[in-house]
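Marked as duplicate of an earlier ticket. Keeping the data here for the record.
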Amino acid sequence: MKKIVFLVLVLLSITTKGHAQFSKGMFSKDPIINLENWQKQKLYFGFYLGFNSFDFKIDYKTVGPDIQTKKTTGFNLGLVADLKLQEYINLRFEPGLYYTKRDLYYPNFATENDAIREVNSTYIHFPLLLKFSSLRTGNVRPYLLGGASATLNLSSNAKSLDDNLEQRFRVKSWTTNYELGLGIDLFSEYFIFSPSIRGVFGINDELIRDKDPNSPWTSNIESMKSRAVFINFTFH
C-alpha cells in the first residue's frame, strides 16, 4: 500500500506540473483545442503498454515467521474499448496480457531448493471499469477508474499432480479482483495519450494446497491473494 500511495503521489505531481506547464504555454491565453469533438464519440478503441508489480497478501492460521515475497517489474500490453454512457462517465473493457514474476522465500528450511519457490505468471486480464472524467481544461482531462476484473493465469500449474514436495508451486487458474486508479487524458493534435496508475486487489484465495495436509509450504496459509500496481500508457 505504501508503494501504491507513493506512485499515486508521483502521478499527481506529474499531472500538476504538466498542467501548469500547459497553462503557461499554449493554453494560457488562446488555447488551441485538439480533437475538440472526440468526447462526442459513442464508442472508440485504443491500446496500451505498461508495467506491473505483483505481490501476495498472505494470511496465516497461526502466528509464525512470514513468507517473504521478492517482487519484480513485469510488463503489460492490451486493447481498450470505451463506451460513452454519459458526458463524464464511460464504460471501459481493457483485455490484456500481463507477465510477472515473484519469488517466495519460506523460513525454517535448510536448503535453497526447499526455501525458494519461483512463481512465474502469465495472465490474461479482463477488467470491466467505469471511468469518471472531470471537466476538460484545455487539452488536459483527469479521471478516476474503478471496477472489477477476472484473470486467467496461464502458468498456474493448477492441473499438475506434483506439488511443493516435487518443487511445484500451484495456484488456481482463475481469480477475481477489484481495481481502483486514476489517470489523465492529454489531447494532442492526432491522438490522446493517457498515463494511468491502478491498484488491483485479489478477492478470492488463489493457493492450491499440497496433498500432505501438514505440508510446511501450504498447511499454515489461511489465504493467499494477489496485489498489484499497474502503470499503463494508453493511446486512443
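See parent ticket for discussion. Helices lie at 2-24, 112-115.
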